[in-house]
Write a structure and sequence with these properties.
Length: about 750
Amino acid sequence: MSQPVPQPIPARMRGLNRAEICDVNFSEFVRGWNGHVDARPSADEAILDGSALDARGFRELFESQLISRHLDLMARVLRVQDKVFYTIGSSGHEGNAMVARLTRHTDPAFLHYRSGGFMAERFRKLPGMDPVMDSALSFAASKDDPASGGRHKVWGSKPLWVLPQTSTIASHLPKAFGTAVAIEQGRRIGHALPIPADSIAICSFGDASSNHATAQTAFNAAAWTAYQKLPAPVLFVCEDNGIGISVKTPDGWVARNFAQRPDLDYFAADGLDLAAGYGDVQRAVEHCRRTRRPTFLHLRTTRIMGHAGTDFEIEWRPLEELCAVEASDPLLRSVAIALESGLMSKDEVLALYEATRARCFAAAEDADRRPRLDSLADVMAPLAPYTPAAVQAEATRADFDARRLEVFGGEAKLPENQPPRHLAIQINQALHDLFCKYPETLLFGEDVAQKGGVYTVTKGLQKAFGPRRVFNTLLDETVILGLAQGYANMGLLPLPEIQYLAYFHNACDQIRGEAASLQFFSNGQYRNPMVVRIASLGYQRGFGGHFHNDNSITALRDIPGLVVGCPSRGDDAATMLRTLAALAKVDGRVCALLEPIALYMAKDLHAPGDGGWLTSYPAPGEAMTLGEGRVYGEGHDDLVIFTFGNGVPMSLRAARAIEQTHGWKVRVVDLRWLVPLNDAFIQQQAASAKRILVVDEGRRSAGVGEGIITAVVEGGHGALPLLRVVGADTFTPLAGAAFLVIPSDAEIVAAADRLAVRAP
Ligand SMILES: Cc1ncc(C[n+]2csc(CCOP(=O)(O)OP(=O)(O)O)c2C)c(N)n1
Ligand SMILES: [Mg+2]
């Protein structure tokens, strides 16, 4: 079998664009070929002796490789004409087309940015699709791009089950793992999956990316699952080109790191040689599908034409090394196979090469003539869909009486027939109701099952609904949120729990970069609805220190499209939960519920034993509209306090003192919804105010309070006497010192005193 021979680089070409050199190398290699030629194989004959690949398969894979290559070459040329806006290519990785050929278009795929070959090949799985045009539209950021509608150059396709990925390397591995788990678990709870039950999840990434914490956490979670003999049919495809931008992966490291991992089954395949690699890829895919075990496919690739069009390797890499890399071009090997097997003549190869080039350029020019996103409304359209009437109808739908009677144990035991209770109990009852209403609901996290959570909020749920719907995960927030995305991808309704707000920050990218961006980058075609419950905020009498009293809401505030609610009392939590679930179901929204830990058990408001913070359970049929606040002291205008969470009972207590001292009528406005802030409601409440106080237990900088004040000022009420009582920009210390950094009842009263000396 002849190997591609490194081409001598003529002096005139040194320092030139390496893409051009690779392009020229191809034609020169074909013209210079004078190796042995077999008799032409028939379509179903092995392409070369001993290969698992037949001639028809090779021919199609080769065409997919050429499409991928010419899209790259086209991008390099048209980038400088501002017709293309992305030049990270797949050159050297085209062998990943084998993975596409050997899997199904219904196997959800989460792809590396060098998966052009995979995409071109997957497009064959459905009739009437055009990989060249669709890709060209994405390269051109055209509004007609079927993957993202012009929002990013992504590999994505709704009909082909390719979920668009972000550019954050490794961030897609946890959700690929989650999707694999969801395929199995969905079936087990009787959920109708959108894909066949024996599907696998495919996830490709680079060698450097395999070191990333987010990747490692997915490998670990997959192995942790398989170790317990639970299924996790995920095919991890490591496309090893030996380098990450300019940093070389130590020789042999990927094999060393993964070949012996328990419960992550390792396969290696040569992605540079279709004839040699095909059988190994096939074994890996079949193993994953049959055993339902996490499988690691180590695919040998190379990277030619640099990391991206902007990477002038010639400036930082020895020329000899570059030439050696270019000589390992898998397309040269494919040409050798095509010629040696007798499948194609030199002229046929060159004609196909040039025809593919022409096709890619024609598509790119066509794409360039299509419209691009040209208004902010267009850009944002898929980001945060909201259909109020449908959400309200869903949130108030109460057609699950029979199930709840069964779960709660009869009419008399229904929560709405019980005396008023505190927040933790009412959240617990509301969760029971959600489980009755939605058989596709899952609740999971650390310690949520038998123990019922650190604060017993999920107590009894596992007993009532079984371990397949309520379960403990391994201790890893990134995996918890990755699982949530996976379940959502399979049409389930995940309610992941993050044990403390501080530990949300630990895994924030799974929401910030991934879940919340999916509708945007898929132009609304894919969604991963979920309601993340997070035990949050301070005021725990000095216990627990910073990490159990974290008050940083800011990290959630600027996540586009996210909905954040923060109830301060039990009835509000129940009606809010219903709306959050409806937002997830109807509009596919990613939602967070911040549960104020310090109020979980709060029973009293003004004095011990007054029961002022207990509430009755709202029967199903009641729900809270997104953005709707709660007003205490309607019509009171002397002072309006805007607040939320722990600030609500504090402000209500302070209001009494202020009324006594100043004789003012005080209105306390619980915003309840923190993201998005309801500016119109804030402005409407501010309109009749004589003075305004903002009580924000979050941090001073970039906190909710800043948003409230901005709304007030933009509403034209900035001239009113106005002050903030707000947390300090610090971490929270242990013990009594904790109270020094967050607002207190006394500070609210003192702030009112300061307002009193300002003229209204
Ligand atoms: C979390 C994150 N950090 C850094 C980057 C910038 N970056 C983009 S690609 C890349 C190298 C990736 O190398 P590898 O995983 O080997 O993939 P390859 O490009 O070689 O195919 C880096 C550092 C990123 N996209 N995401
Ligand atoms: Mg690499």
